[in-house]
Design a protein that fits this description.
Length: 314
């Protein structure tokens, strides 16, 4: 089973001709409410790959919270671990996007700030399971759960997004760290690791520092990974007709959830990265985030179009 300790938000997606400047009011004729939050998104991606997934988090007692739980439950995610807050509303995100694709995002954490590691019972922290986390819940709770999970022998994965610093010691409890190139640079700078601006060198420095496998996602350039043993891989994105690209918002979460599902199933690092890359690419072909997550059949039908992983030298 994959355990996801993560956030749930209701996303307000607002379409604009152009984004406002400070102090300006602009009008929009369209907005949509869509389920989101990195925890929910990545849970759904893993579930659609075919994994058994349990999501742990917190929502408000409002209609948004109930809708988020029901939506994920209807997609096969176990949500009994998603608790209700007595005094805070469900987290929300305001996403304003203009015609060029540029966006502005404001996140109101709401009930997410009350998620605690105690919501994850010891009974499911067993070595057959995998724990996936992000950085949209309280850092101290995330780090404590990571420590508990590692002590029990679980595979542990952290998508360090946003790039909030965690204690150096906590990095040593990770098996996999997934970051984008910007987040990797920020973390390396905070750790004072000399890497320049090279994605492979960034991954290598972080892998050595935490004795873990580090994956750096590079958008259109694919992703690279370096293991603690110094093995390195490069995987491109699945080739897409750019005229078909609708929305790139969910690509990163699709990558993370699919990667974890593939690793948990026993696939090798380069193969898991290939599956994840296809999932991320396919997500860009539909609007929204959770509703755009591909199913395993969708991924398999396009896997032959995906170039093989390439082993690279450090």
């Amino acid at each position: 089973m994959i355990i996801v300790f993560g956030s749930l938000n209701m996303d307000f997606m607002i379409s604009l001709d152009r984004l406002p400047v400070a102090g300006e009011t602009v009008l929009s004729t369209e907005y949509k409410l869509m389920p989101g939050g990195k925890g929910g998104n990545q849970s759904l991606a893993a579930a659609r790959f075919g994994s058994k997934v349990a999501l742990i988090g917190r929502v408000g007692t409002d209609s948004y919270g109930k809708d988020l739980r029901e939506s994920l439950k209807s997609n096969g995610v176990m949500v009994s671990g998603v608790a209700y807050s007595d005094d805070l509303p469900t987290g929300c995100a305001m996403v304003a996007k203009e015609a060029t694709g540029e966006n502005q995002i404001i996140v109101m954490s709401g009930a997410n700030v009350q998620a605690t590691h105690e919501q994850v019972p010891d009974e499911i922290l067993i070595k057959q399971n995998l724990l996936l986390m992000q950085m949209e819940l309280p850092v101290d709770q995330t780090v404590t759960l990571l420590t508990r999970a590692k002590a029990q022998g679980l595979i542990t994965v952290l998508n360090l997004a946003p790039a909030i610093m965690i204690p150096r010691k906590a990095l040593g409890h990770l098996d996999y760290l997934i970051v984008n190139s910007i987040e990797a640079t920020q973390i390396a700078e905070k750790l004072q690791l000399p890497t320049g601006n090279n994605a492979v060198k960034l991954a290598q420095a972080l892998a050595i520092e935490g004795q873990m496998t580090v994956i750096v996602t590079l958008g259109k350039k694919g992703s690279v990974a370096v293991t603690k043993d110094g093995e390195a891989w490069s995987v491109p994105i699945m080739p897409l007709d750019q005229s078909e690209v609708v929305d790139i918002t969910g690509a990163g979460d699709a990558y993370c959830g699919t990667f974890c599902a593939a690793i948990h199933e026993g696939k090798s690092l380069p193969e898991a990265m290939r599956f994840a890359s296809v999932a991320g690419s396919l997500t860009c072909l539909k609007p929204g985030t959770q509703e755009a997550m591909p199913y395993l059949d969708d991924i398999l039908s396009r896997l032959d179009e995906m170039p093989q992983a390439e082993k690279i030298s450090l």
